[in-house]
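Researcher: Please translate sequence to structure tokens.
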Amino acid sequence: MKHYLITGAAGFIGSQLTEVLLNAGHRVTAIDNFSLGTRAHIATAQQSPMYQIIEADLVDTAACIAHLKPVHSTHPIDEVWHLAANSDISAGVSDSSIDLRNTFLTTHSVLAAMKELGIKRLAFSSTSAVYGVHDGAMSEDIGPLFPISNYGAMKLASEAAISAALESYLEKVWIFRFPNVVGPRATHGAIFDFIGRLRQNPEELLVLGDGTQQKPYLHVSELLDAMIFITNTAQGKMNYFNIGPSDTGATVKSMAESVVRHLGGKASIRYTGGDRGWVGDVPRFYYSVAKLEALGWKPSMDSAGALDRAIQDIIQENQ
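Model: Translation complete:
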């Protein structure tokens, strides 16, 4: 049994990771300020005696340390899984302080707390956005990296701060570079938005961009499986992996058509034009996942399959 600290634990991914770890017999302490996460997401976890939720602003380092000291002294924390971040990329483009505070300063605070408390192992949710725009497959070792969104920039800065901490006081780090992750409990994203728009206007679906944007998609259930597999299997000091399918992705057009089909197939689709949905949106990319495959993990669904399952998930939970 391990004791995990999960930040952003009431969010889309964090809440589901929590349940997987609890079901495996581990203890979980969660931190969330509920700015994006919801109490409904943690309702199942709260039924477990092995779960504790701390409502706190992660950027307030002193307060977080004060909350965590008694927890850590009673049941020492083995690993921190830092998932808290701003997840609205377009909002961060409009106001760069959002990602500075909620994406980078949360990481800075987590590292400071780990140093103070003597916690040595960190798993970090990074992103494909650190790569910026590249021709060809994005592999873990390409560079230089020039993100085009503040979100990607602050995630890359977080990776750098974690690397520096590893040299100083951490013992082991896992960095996960996520693709577009889809599935139940989503609070944002194209599928979530499309379903909401169609329920407001069943006759027409407005889609940002021209629909040719093409990206890899991974169902959240497979993301969780991959992250846990990586932390159990990759035992270097610094372990960093792209997580995703091996295909070149699915288009926004195909996603929109699938959402319309699942909701009855009556709406026309109107595109706003342009090769991207918003400033900071990388219009097309695909991953090299050879490093993860060599470690021994592959998803069971391709991008199209992940999207189809996620559309059904989100429609069903919002009925």
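Researcher: Any highlights?
Model: The CA atoms of residues 195 and 259 lie 7 Å apart.
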